[in-house]
């Protein structure tokens, strides 16, 4: 008979008590001085030209630090990809799929970032689907 009898038995987790009581610490719980929280504004169209992005109302919201669009990325190489850098960090002139990132709201609290992201207005011109 083998001394390994793990299969078919319950194994007690080391962090069981912390997770059950809510005392466990996760990366999302970490805070640092001056830290801001981000919320991505995503496209509501599957294929459309971006005519304009109005960030004024979001920038005026309480605790908002900045709203970043592709125009703010300037000279940076604003693309990424696994093998070929063929995806834009933020859509520049048109969106190519539903949910493509269009802007990022930075705020002092997660709630402020979430609320301000809903205030970003994107003007689209729908394009035919492929």
Q: What can you see in these coordinates?
A:
- The protein has helices at residues 16-21, 56-60, 110-117, and strands at residues 37-42, 48-54, 64-69, 79-80, 87-88, 94-95, 101-107, 121-126.
- The protein is an alpha+beta fold.
- Strands 1-7-3 form a three-stranded antiparallel beta sheet. Strands 6-2-8 form a three-stranded antiparallel beta sheet. A two-stranded antiparallel sheet has the order 4-5.
- The termini are far apart.
- The model has no long low-confidence stretch (mean pLDDT 92).
Features:
130 residues, 3-stranded antiparallel sheet, alpha+beta
Structural class: alpha+beta
Shape: extended
User: What order do the helices and strands follow?
Assistant: HEEHEEEEEHE
Q: Helical content, roughly?
A: 10-25%
Terminal residue distance: 63 Å
């Amino acid at each position: 008979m083998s001394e390994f009898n793990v299969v078919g038995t319950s194994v007690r987790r080391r962090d069981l008590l912390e997770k059950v009581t809510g005392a466990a610490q996760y990366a999302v719980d970490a805070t640092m001085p001056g830290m801001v929280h981000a919320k991505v504004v995503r496209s509501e169209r599957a294929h459309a030209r971006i005519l304009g992005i109005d960030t004024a109302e979001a920038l005026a919201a309480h605790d908002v630090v900045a709203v970043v669009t592709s125009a703010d990325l300037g000279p940076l190489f604003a693309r990424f990809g696994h093998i070929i850098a063929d995806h834009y960090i933020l859509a520049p002139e048109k969106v190519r799929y539903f949910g493509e990132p269009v802007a990022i709201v930075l705020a002092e609290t997660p709630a402020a970032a979430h609320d301000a992201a809903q205030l970003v207005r994107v003007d689209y011109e729908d394009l035919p689907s492929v």
